[in-house]
Design brief:
It is globular, with a radius of gyration of 28 Å. The protein is built from 8 helices and 7 strands, in the order αββααββββααβααα. The protein has helices at 2-28, 62-68, 98-106, 151-156, 164-172, 182-188, 204-217, 224-234; strands at 36-37, 43-44, 108-113, 116-123, 130-134, 143-147, 177-181. The strands form 3 sheets. A 3-stranded antiparallel beta sheet has the order 3-4-5, covered by helices on one side. Strands 1-2 form a two-stranded antiparallel sheet. Helix content is 36%, strand content 13%. With 248 residues, it is of the alpha+beta class.
């Protein structure tokens, strides 16, 4: 009988220790039960949390972000001037200007002289061709830096409301800049996706997704024709992600 009493006593003591340990964990980690707080303030237990559906708007798919953009006609009441955005390329954190930074990012086999890219190879996204870039008065134009969302298009779809600092930011933002074939860039000019797409069809999805990313980041709108053209492209690649919006 004494043996049974001792066994029960040990069980009671062990249970008490276990309860105390759990309580201590909760005190030491007061957020342990609040892994996911919803917008309405309710709390999900850890076991109730479901994996995020990667096809939801939170996944930043281009098709979903496009649907979040306002749709309006271009504003034609405010006169556009390129110098309203920038006079010349600014300096990056490295001390080199933005043009050189984009060349360094997009070219391979680059040769530098200080900050300046003297030569390199561009796998051009717009034409699908390979371009040998050599710096020089007659050769530098073979590779140009394109504003993926043309600044005049940005202006007419909301940037006329920007202050000078934000206009400068979009003009220098690496998200909105690509090193591309010079003639293709000249052919594009300020046209949006309803009027111009890169000759390289394999780049259409990435191109449109980057335009959508820029417009979403800067809260610009799209025109009805522009949205329709973008939807047509993305219908062939519904899982195309946006670029650089994860932390916006």
């Amino acid at each position: 009988m004494a043996h049974k009493t001792s066994y029960r006593t040990r069980r009671i003591i062990f249970a008490g220790i276990l309860i105390a340990a759990v309580a201590a964990c909760i005190v030491l980690n007061p957020n342990s039960y609040q892994y996911a707080r919803q917008i309405d303030g309710s709390v999900q237990k850890p076991e109730e949390i479901q994996p995020k559906d990667e096809t939801t708007p939170d996944s930043m798919l281009a098709v979903d972000v496009l649907e979040s953009l306002a749709v309006r006609a271009k504003d034609k009441t405010h006169q556009y001037y390129r110098k309203l955005f920038y006079d010349s390329w600014g300096l990056t954190a490295s001390g080199c200007n933005t043009r050189e930074a984009i060349l360094a990012r997009d070219l391979k086999d680059t040769v530098f002289n200080g900050c300046k890219v003297q030569s390199g190879i561009l796998d051009d996204p717009y034409t699908g061709s390979t371009i040998s870039f050599v710096r020089g008065q007659d050769t530098s134009g073979a590779v140009q830096i394109d504003h993926v969302v043309a600044l005049s298009n940005a202006w007419a779809t909301g940037a006329f409301n920007f202050d000078a600092g934000l206009r400068y930011e979009i003009s220098q933002d690496p998200l909105n800049l690509l090193a591309v074939d010079g003639p293709a860039n000249q052919d594009k000019l300020d046209q949006d996706a309803s009027d111009w797409l890169p000759p390289n069809q394999n780049f259409h999805c990435q191109y449109v997704a980057r335009q959508i990313s820029v417009k979403a980041k800067y809260h610009l709108w799209v025109t009805p024709a522009e949205k329709s053209a973008m939807q047509g492209v993305l219908a062939t690649c519904p899982n195309e992600p946006t670029v650089g919006l994860e932390n916006q």
